[in-house]
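Subject: complex prediction, re-run

Hi both,

The earlier run crashed halfway through, so I resubmitted it with identical inputs.
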Amino acid sequence: MSVLVWVEHDGTAVKDATLPTVTAAAKLGDVVLLVAGEGVSAAADAAAKIAGVAKVLVADEAALAHALPENVAPLVATLMADHDAFLVPATTNGKNIAPRVAALLDVMQISDILSVESADTFTRPIYAGNAIATVQSKDAKKVISVRGTAFEKAAAEGGSAPVEPVSGATDAGVSTYVGSEIATSERPELTSAKIIVSGGRALQNGENFHALIEPLADKLGAGVGASRAAVDAGYVPNDYQVGQTGKIVAPEVYIAVGISGAIQHLAGMKDSKTIIAINKDEDAPIFQVADIGLVGDLFKIVPELTSKL
Amino acid sequence: MKVLVPVKRVLDYNVKPRVKADGTGIDLANVKMSMNPFDEIAVEEAIRLKEKGVVTEIVVVSIGEPKAQDTLRTALAMGADRAILVTSDTKVEPLGVAKLLKAIADEEQPSLVILGKQAIDDDNNQTGQMLAALTGWGQGTFASKIEVEGDFVTVTREVDGGAETEKLKLPAIVTTDLRLNEPRYASLPNIMKAKSKPLATKTAADFGVDVSPRLTTLKVEEPAKRSAGVKVADVDELVGKLKALGVAK
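This time it finished cleanly. Structure:
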């Protein structure tokens, strides 16, 4: 079985999200990577070094810049004549492109898989992770998005796959990229951080969030997350959100500060290895999943904790 | 211009889903069902575009069991103009839904289709993108802001790490993210009025679309339970635990 994997990259480097997808792909067959974009030779070289990769296809054309699905999906659908499965990481780009490819191939996509049971059977979470479904696909070709936290990362170094150019991408002429505002942060990226400190509504405002959560995170070398309530209230930007509709994380340690633990938030973090909750409400649902809980006022506890670390 | 808004009836987001003992699915007997929250946002956005004078007609569509009619009435009460219910005996997957919506789009010729980014039951996040593929239209997924100007729609999208803006030629597909708007509640007079708004009922077979499922659910299980945790008394004890975990020195 030949498995085509869409590589998430920023033009020069391969993003970490690609690596678990390579691991999932290797369980199905020979892994062929697709690096698509404009000016992506450095990313292609980096992709060729990933361990366990048979071949890297490079599609370097203006129409493929910014991963516009209207232009990327038809190219992938054409390439799929030679492959049996198409895998993407379940990132915003992956989720944007893969279903478009699936429909062009007239197959159902299998979203956000947690495991590969066999060549046609996979597990995936439904109902905000409150149930795990085992699904079998009858389609000849599989289109799959992979939950990054569910698979080990493939080694980024050690491989030496041959790089082969592919052409044929055209601009569908229905969409243009205007611009982007990407938040810059010195802190570890949320989805790959080993430790995450997350704040919720109880912080009351953005100033408290910055004054309490960030110093604690920095002390621990942690990434910073937030509940939807904290994001909606404007304490921090949207891309901090952990949950069913935000980022799915599974760090070694997740520290939830002033987060009650709604179903939708738990969906994004309950696979963390150790969950620590700090909340003044001892009946808060977060304590039902927390390995270590401390009941009390976060405005007293967090500064004390930060100073004692 | 006309807007098409597909809506889905799902288990209410506040209800904790219970896995059936026989492992065939989630128990949906006698539980509260509601409109998928992302679809409420889609309906709201369509109404706001109508209030701005950009949109002239809002058609809402739901595909599924006859009870989905309630969801359509909710959308009509919020401000949609008319509804189409497509009933199906079997559960229709996103690919099937996208094919039915394509057939409806061919009939209705909307300039814009606004969908939720995902349904909170199957968590698939596919239908909008699939419909975009079948129609060949541009797709603005995970929208936090949309602006229609002339023959184009500008969509600000929530992406990993921030926001991205794209300009799409109309007709186009937009899927809503949480931050697009705050949906309104339907008032009692509007709920009464919605009862007399037109609602056409069709079946999947009427469209000649094959919606037979491609995926078989072999089983549905509860996720692994976490073992019970401990409560610590004070910060010193917590620091001790953090040290034991190796995350603090």
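Chain A touches chain B through 88 residues (CB under 8 Å).

- K.
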